[in-house]
Amino acid sequence: MKLNIAVLPGDGIGEEIIAQALDVVKAVCKKFDHELTYQKALVGACAIDATGNPYPDETHELCLNSDAVLFGAIGDPKYDHNPLAKVRPEQGLLAMRKKLGLYANIRPVTTFPSLIHKSPLKNELIEGADLMCIRELTGGIYFGRPQGRSEDGNTAYDTCVYTREEIERIVRLAYDYAQKRRNKVTIVDKANVLATSRLWREVSREIEKEFPNVETEYMFVDNVAMQLVQWPKRFDVVVTENMFGDILTDEASVITGSLGMLPSASIGIHTSVFEPIHGSYPQAAGKDIANPLATVLSAALMFEYAFDLQEEGALIRKAVNASMETGVVTEDIATEKAYKTSEVGKWIVEYISK
Mind listing the pLDDT tens digit for each residue in 194-235? Predict the structure, then answer.
C-alpha cells in the first residue's frame, strides 16, 4: 500500500518526538511492505520566524495533498506574554483546523498498568478505564464572530455559534465509534443555560432515534467534570462542543498518570491530523529527554484511522506496551533507569523489526 504523509514537527520538542515516530512508521512500512513517501513542513513559531505566518500556504498545500498529517507540537515562550506580538503560534493550529476541515478531535483515554501508580486517582477507580472523548473542533466560541473589545478596553466579548450541520456531523461520528466499542454515548452540554447547547440537545435527540442499539445519556458539562474523577469507568464515548471538549479532555488525560502517553486524531474533510495531546515543552527542547510515546501512539492511530491498517497499529501499541513493561521509558515515567528520547525510539523500532 502507498502511504503519503505530511510531517509537521512544529516547535519545542516537536522535532525530537516526531523523529522517533517517523522512524517507527518507517519500520512498520518496511515490515509490512508498504511504500512510504513523506515531506516535512513548517508550522507554529518556527513558521512565524521563517515566513511571518504560523501556517504558511506551502504547508497547507502539502497537507491537502497528503493522505495524513503527522504533527508534533506548537508553542514558544517568546510569544506567550508578548503584547506586541501580532501573530501567535497557536493561530497556526486554529488555521490548520479550519482550512483542513478538522471538525472532530478524537482522544482515546486508556490506563496503562505500569502507570497506574502515577495517577492522582485511586487504583480501583481507574484500573480498566477506557473512554473516547470526541470534541468538535471548528465551531463554538473559539471561532465565533463578533469577537473583540470595546474602545476603552474595559469590556471584552466572544460569541459562541453552532449550526445544525456542525452538530449532526460530530454526533453521528460519536455514534459510529460507539458501535465499534461498548455502544454508549454521553452527550455533554449546558442546555439549562446556553442557547447553543439547547440546539445541540435538540439535534442529538433526533439522531439518537437512528441508533436504538446505542445507550444515550445527556449530561451537563459540570456534572461530567465531576464524574470523570469520581467514576471514569462509567464512560464509553463522550461527545461535546469545542470549549467544553478542550477542558474535559485535559481533565480526562490526567487519569492515565502522564500527558506524555496520550495520542489524538483530528478527523477532517480534506485529510486527518495525528498528534500527541501534550504541548511543545520548550524547557526540554534539544535535551533528548521528552517522552515520545504519545507521538508514537499517534502514528498507530494514523495507520488505523487514515489507512485502515489495524494490524500495523496493533503492532505499534504492542511495542509501546513492551517498552513500558521492560522499563525502557523516559524520565517522566521512569521508576528506575531513565532512557533518552532517541533510545526509547530505537528500542521500539528494534522491537517492531524483530
Answer: 999 999 999 999 999 999 999 999 999 999 999 999 999 999
Give pTM, 2 decimals: 0.86
CA distance 89 to 44: 4
Q: What is the pLDDT of residues 42-99, one digit of tens each?
A: 999 999 999 999 999 999 999 999 999 999 999 999 887 776 678 899 999 989 988 9
**175, 186, 265, 342 from 293: Cα distances, Å:** 28, 28, 15, 11
Residue found under cell 501567535? 88
CB 10, CB 70: distance < 8 Å: no
Report the C-alpha gap between 256 and 314 in whole angstroms: 19
Q: Which residues form the catalytic set?
A: 142, 190, 222, 246, 250
Instruction: Tell me how many degrees the CA angle 60-66-67 measures, rounded to the nearest 5.
Output: 135
- CA terminus-to-terminus distance, the chain: 21
Could you give the angle at the alpha carbon of 75 between the alpha carbons of 293 and 321, nearest 5°? Answer: 5
Q: Which of 25, 116, 35, 27 is nearest to 301 (CA)?
A: 25
Q: What is the 3-state secondary structure (H, E, C) of the chain?
A: CEEEEEEEEECCCHHHHHHHHHHHHHHHHHHCCCEEEEEECCCCHHHHHHHCCCCCHHHHHHHHCCCEEEEEECCCHHHHCCCCCCCCHHHHHHHHHHHCCEEEEEEEEECCHHHHHHCCCCHHHHCCCEEEEEEECCCCCCCCCCCEECCCCCCEECCCCCCHHHHHHHHHHHHHHHHCCCCEEEEEECCCCCHHHHHHHHHHHHHHCCCCCCEEEEEEHHHHHHHHHHCHHHCCEEEECHHHHHHHHHHHHHHHCCHHHCEEEEEECCCCEEEECCCCCHHHCCCCCCCCHHHHHHHHHHHHHHCCCHHHHHHHHHHHHHHHHHCCCCCCCCCCCCCCHHHHHHHHHHHHHC
Angle, helices 293-301 vs 14-31, to 10°: value is 50
Distance of CA 36 to the CA centre of its chain: 23
